[in-house]
Amino acid sequence: MNEPNSFSMLPEPLLSKLNELNISSPTKVQEKVIPQIIEGKNIIFQSETGTGKTFAYLLPILKKIMELPVPSNASDIFVKAVIAAPTFELASQINQSVKSISGIKTALFLGGAPIKRQLEILKEKPEIVIGTESRLVELIRLKKLKIARIMFAVFDEADRLVKKEMKSETLALMSEIPSGAQIIACTATIDKDTKKFFSDFETEILPEEDVLKRSISHWAIYAEYRDKIDTLRKFLTAENPEKALVFTSRADQVENICSKLKYKKIDCMALHAKADKVQRKAAIDRFRSGKAKILITSDLSARGLDIQNITHVIQMDLPQDRDFFIHRAGRTARAGKTGINVVSETNTR
Fold first, then answer.
1. DSSP secondary-structure letter at 300?
2. Do the domains 6-205 and 211-346 sit in the same CATH topology, yes or no?
3. Which of 265, 264, 266, 304 lies closest to 284, judged by CA?
4. Smallest Cα–Cα separation from 302: which of 92, 133, 163, 157?
5. Is 211-346 a CATH 3.40.640.10 domain?
């Protein structure tokens, strides 16, 4: 007989969907956090990359929404949850996660996308709204996104949302949240700024599972700076990875690396902030499906990008921020698998 766990608190339709995804038992963070969210606590929780944070908050939120009385008419349908994410990629991924386990209607609102179309989507009565914090604030201030009755507000990758360049918009969004809403935040790394911003909340820090040490092999490749891209080409040719994610700190180098690899007949895609939404989605979709085995990106995608079966992460440089190294490396060895993290070091000898 199976021991009771946090999944035993979920309704049968959710359990059935999880079973279809071959998920039969909760991860450590899901076991710890799901009951607290069901209890109604305002919480910020920290858990390493690849440990299941998204489902840790989505499952109890969906449970509570599914248990509400079915509205008798369309006018009784309202937005019940707002989920803020720092990037287009993460917001899109959360949206797909909801759709994978629930038929509850969602809406995705991203900065840079035509606002007219997004206003039309709101007329379709979504119950869960997911987006970048700047666009969510804009729609709320236009009085198009009505959140007076929301039950949940979620801040995913909370440490990124409170960084200098995003903090004002995150504060603005927080100020709009009604007093009765339950607030949930999660991140892989809680720093002092994040602690201060969410100081009134219950804090749950899961013990480190040493994913970076236990599940990931770390390699270093030495090359002169001018030879780095050619060394990358040789490595990819020799290693022939099933799926490789290549990071560079310099966004302007993404296209350069990609074009030089393509010139040498290596099929790859580029992903960076300056690309438009359609190009970014196409790059991720091709990489996710396996049609392209190599994705070159800036640190834009280190945050929260969850693509299965990435066998290799290749860091063309070391980021100044230690947390970015962790987020980069954590794109491999997800869901209990193993992976390889390769750092391209400049040869100073």
1. G
2. yes
3. 304
4. 157
5. no
Separation of alpha carbons 32 and 217, rounded Å:
28
For 93, 171, 183, 193, 259, the CA distances from 327, given in Å and listed in that order, are 16, 24, 24, 18, 25
At what angle are helices 53-66 and 28-39 packed, to 10 degrees? Answer: 30
Helix (H) or strand (E) holding 82: strand 81-85
Distance CA 326, CA 126 (A): 35
Q: pLDDT tens digits for the chain (349 residues)?
A: 355 799 999 999 999 999 999 999 999 999 999 999 999 999 999 988 778 899 999 999 999 999 999 888 877 899 999 999 998 889 999 999 999 999 999 999 998 888 999 999 999 999 999 999 999 999 999 999 999 999 999 999 999 999 999 999 999 999 999 999 999 999 988 889 999 999 999 999 887 766 677 789 999 999 999 999 999 999 999 999 999 999 998 888 999 999 999 999 999 999 887 777 788 888 988 998 999 999 999 886 656 677 888 999 999 998 877 778 888 888 898 777 889 999 998 865 4
Locus of tokens 């780095």: 228
Do 129 and 109 touch, CB atoms closer than 8 A? yes
CATH code for the part of the protein at 6-205: 3.40.50.300
Domain ranges in the chain? 6-205, 211-346
Distance CA 21, CA 107 (A): 23
